[in-house]
User: What shape does this take?
Amino acid sequence: MTEDTQDDRDVLPALNNDDIKTNVYEGGFKTWECSLDLAKIIADSFTRGDEPQHERLHCIELGCGTALPTMTIFRQMICQTSSSEHHVYFTLADYNYDVLRLASLPNLLLCWANTIKHNSELAADDDLEITPELLKEFVADLRQRNIQIDFISGAWSERFVHVLDQRFPSTYTLILASETIYSPFTLNPFTKLLMHLLSRIGNEDSKALIAAKKVYFGVGGGMDEFLTILTSMGGAAREIAVPGREEHGVARVILEVAKS
Assistant: This one.
């Protein structure tokens, strides 16, 4: 796990009932509505047989939080990948180290145990007893399946890009992000990071799926602002429909983003 220089030791006591505390906590312990939309789109693509068919796949979730979209792909991969034919890399990034430690990673571990071990390790109350033996089995099983998971905490920055450039090969990449464009102050660095990741890949099939509300009232961000910046940086986007979703309150959108 790679950390930025920020100190997250005060994140948990500072939470209280706030969804977000700027520059302290960015909402990662909550599963937001748009992440559910994105997970549904991904699950539907596997149902249709439209999942990535590349021998090497790098899935990056920016602002992952509880990592529901990544878990949707992760579960499919551990069901399908039982040999060395495929290599799958997962990179989960969140502003807060504590979110990765207490939400993202435990959710992946639970997903693996529930899928591979067919509930045999789950107690009657659906709790999973995490033992050293279970962790060793988890790591060994992923290694056998050529699945690698990395975690990066910190703000959108050049250091984040440097870590990815140094550690991962250029390959087909799917970038996921939910509720990451709510703040006008992070729109520019987020979009810059997004376009850099799409540009470094060198693969026309690589893309990003961005799920967000059309407008974030009281905060200032939203889809229009994001699209304006994206276009200025050489990106293009198309809207993806979410089948069966009922709209309540603020409209939500999923965009497929690529280089123009």
